[in-house]
Specification:
Blueprint: H1 3-42, H2 47-59, E1 90-92, E2 97-99, H3 101-111, H4 117-122, H5 128-142, H6 156-170, H7 180-184, E3 189-191, E4 194-196, E5 214-216, E6 221-223, H8 225-235, H9 246-258, E7 268-270
Parallel strand pairs: 5-7
Antiparallel strand pairs: 1-2, 3-4, 5-6
Helix pairs in contact: 2-5, 3-5, 6-9, 8-9
Length: about 270
């Protein structure tokens, strides 16, 4: 190749290299800006309002029986809140069911306070007693903030639900042939300038499962994990799962066990 021919090629290569570097810097800058924004907002995280409401709901006699939730067993004994969040979902002998935090709270509201669990399950997120369940979950999660996830896997049902959750995570279906793994099944994926954690393994402290419940700045709403998973199904164009369904609890087991050792930052702040 002559010198005269090589000069344009070299120049083109340098321009392309510069464009790629500029794009990488812009992308990094956008991601850093999002993280800086979250850090600034964290000091005044509106989730604190839901925490206060949740603590009050836990201690206040309510429902047809006019009883508080002080004797609700979240897995560590009646009334014990600290440390419970990072060990859920788990198997509960009294209900003979695998339950996550929100479905367990609804069971306690029914057995202790006399609420109708089926009616709460049918109530839309953010309405009526569902709104109270979210507040309760927010406070209970906050009581375990900074602790490491360590979901039990001793009971046979806990092991079964992990495997069910794994299969659901990789199940492709719907109008776009999506699965949970389409977004969260490998490293290095990104959407809307945000990194997507790989949830098939421990994604790190305060990431993925270890960040919910969380306050969504974009819509001014507090979301628990049930609503987070519900919205994931919506984005995949799947039918909405029922509240506290086997599918959502099994996915919670899969994600929680994979995140063993991760530090909880819930309630977090999200886009």
């Amino acid at each position: 190749m002559t010198f005269s021919k090589s000069v344009p090629l070299i120049a083109s290569a340098l321009v392309l290299s510069g464009l790629l570097a500029s794009s990488a810097r812009a992308q990094k800058s956008a991601i850093e800006s999002i993280e800086e924004y979250r850090a600034m907002m964290q000091d005044g995280n509106p989730a604190e309002l839901f925490e206060a409401k949740g603590e009050d709901l836990w201690k206040t006699p309510r429902g047809p029986k006019k009883v508080s939730l002080a004797q609700c067993d979240l897995g560590k004994g009646p009334g014990v809140v600290k440390g419970a969040f990072v060990e859920l979902p788990r198997f509960f002998a009294d209900t003979q069911r695998m339950q996550d935090l929100e479905s367990r709270l609804v069971s306690c509201m029914e057995t202790l306070q006399g609420f109708n669990a089926a009616e709460i399950a049918k109530t839309p997120f953010g309405k009526g007693e569902q709104n109270n369940v979210t507040a309760l979950a927010t406070w209970i999660a906050a009581e375990s903030k900074g602790q490491k996830f360590n979901l039990p896997q001793a009971h046979a049902q806990e092991k079964v639900f992990y495997e069910v959750g794994k299969r659901l995570f990789f199940q492709r279906a719907g109008a776009h042939d999506f699965a949970c793994a389409s977004c969260h099944g490998s490293d290095g994926k990104r959407i809307r300038l945000q990194d997507l954690p790989n949830l098939t393994k421990n994604p790190g402290d305060g990431v993925g499962f270890a960040a919910w419940p969380a306050y969504r700045v974009s819509n001014g709403q507090m979301w628990g994990m049930q609503q987070r998973l519900n919205d994931c199904y919506r984005q995949q164009r799947f039918p909405f799962p029922g509240f506290g369904s086997v599918a959502t609890v099994a996915l919670g087991v899969y994600l929680g066990v994979n995140g063993k050792g991760a530090i909880s930052v819930a309630p977090a702040l999200k886009r």
